[in-house]
Amino acid sequence: MHALFQRHPAFGGFLLTMSLRERFSGKIFTESYAILGAVLLALCILLTFLEPRFLSVSNIFNILRQSAIIGIISLGMTCVILVRGIDLSVGSIVALSSLVGAATVHAGFPFFVAWGVALLVGAICGGINGVVVGWLGIPPFIVTLGMMGAARGAALLFTGGAPISGFPDAFRVLGKGWLAAVPVPVLVFGGVFFVLYLLLERSIWGEQVRSIGSNPVAAWGSAMSVPRITASVFVLSGVLSALSGLVLAGRLDAAQPTAGLGYEFGAIAAAVLGGTQFSGGKGTLFGTILGVLIMGIISNGINILNVNPFYEQVVRGLVIAAALVFYGRLSAREAA
Amino acid sequence: MMKGKRLLLLVLVGLLIAAFPLAASARQTLGVVISTLNNPFFVTLKEGTEQKAQELDVDVVIYDAQDDSAKMASAMEDLIQKEVDAILVNPTDADAVVPSIMKANAAKIPVFTIDRGASSGEVVCHIASDNVAGGRMAGEFLAEQIGGAGKVVELVGIPGTSAARDRGQGFHEAMKEYPDIEIVASQAADFNRDKGLTVFENILQAQPEIDGVFAHNDEMVLGAIAAAEAAGREGIVFVGFDAIDDAVKAVEEGSLAATVAQQPKEMGLMGVEYAVRYLNGEDIPENVPVPLKLVTQ
Q1: Record: contact B206-A53, CB cut-off 8 A
Q2: What is the pLDDT of residues B120-179, one digit of tens each?
Q3: Cβ of B206 and A304 within 8 Å?
Q4: pTM of the model
Q5: Does the domain spanning B2-123+264-290 belong to CATH 3.40.50.2300?
Q6: Is residue B224 less than 8 Å (CB to CB) from chain A?
Q7: What are the backbone angles phi and psi of residue A258, rounded to the nearest 5°?
Q8: Sign of the CA dihedral running A237, A240, A246, A252
Q9: Domain map of chain A by residue range?
């Protein structure tokens, strides 16, 4: 399973056994999956009981399609939190990259060039975050808070606050297309999950990411370049934010400088709900997907049941708080 | 010879000084400070003030704060130094303008706020759009369009904000007049296009029949239109609020039935009118609602 990893000479045996043992010895993941799965199932049963239309194929795809946007970002956020980081700039990068992509396609370039430019903007923003965090050692909270403001400001300046709307269908495909009976955003979300899963669980890079998060001292002592791996994680988060921005722009047929406001909270909440821990090293993409789906189902349920909007934030807050308490107790029990 | 010239000069200066207060008392001067003239909305507002001033035979001195609170403060100071009779201000920021208003209060110059309010300081009167009336107008239009009966959805702005409260209140008042209209869903989409899309997608899942949608702003209604288009649902009447560029375009194209527009010119006209009425000793209300208008095809 970890053939690549074992062949790599850069890792001492200590680091290998420790991170592997940590990952596989703990029941934390299997147990939290079971609980999350149960919560998800209970929510679905409750909502179906209250509103039978909840459990229609079209609503299931609807929830998946809606969740894709925040989901793609959450997968990147999970990797960032795995290296003990945080990325507050994701929502601003969504806005800036989709606006630049939209302007490119409006300038007459083909849609794939516009996509490329948007992803490049995401990579550059993420790269700046990564370089400052990785090599200059500034805390990611501060760095990405700065990028959050800078990218948002740049997005507002870029069009003077106005949205760019009306795109060719090819450009919108990521957001509104269908492949067979599946919406394209769901496929993109699935594709990102698959690729990241391979990277994180089956490649040397994933092993390095986890080791930086679980034991930075040992990681610095090893032969790998901690700054480079850290930076790569922020680049990934930036690129995924840009990809999500393209999905969003496609869905709305508009790119807005105010797009993605508050996405950082949604993404962090989903990752934390899915069992990713701020102390680094621990967390999985699958858990994050469960977290994203739970949040998405709660929103969907509130809308289809026409619950008073004032309750929505209360419910979300309670779910996240309950998850944190639960994980806290679980790790305390593990330690004991 | 030299003495004669000097004397003449003295007399002239004396006359000028004597004449100045006379002239000032004859014509009222209003100072107008506008947040930015870079935005056509506020340019129209400014033109309203000038038009009314000409009608009422008063002078206006206009300052453009260029969306800069510091420039706004110095403009206000200038006006206080000039001892204008009243100041009409369209603040760049509700908090940043407060010290300037307090200085005007100390100099006993009455202050009026237009469009945007001030968080404190003594303001004679606040002249702004009547969001309740706008919500009612939108509701009545929507009801007529769907024939006085059917199922409607309300997309609510950020819960608790004054715009969401007022627009929602007006809409619900209008709906009370139509017992055959049922509000099947009233959900928050936070004034945001992206949330308007997802929230309306969810509502579409639950409601097989929807005749009309009123959203507290255009951003949400544009998101809802995108959701209905993607779901292939036709025949829904959409009404928005604010008349932003994208919404006016959607009205022209026919996907949006109507949007409620603010009337900046009316704001300017009414601002000067009420200021002059106040200076002439009339009692005026603390809040002057400016009517809105419906933009339709």
Answers
A1: yes
A2: 999 999 999 999 999 999 999 999 999 999 999 999 998 888 889 999 999 999 999 999
A3: yes
A4: 0.82
A5: yes
A6: no
A7: -95, 5
A8: negative
A9: 71-292
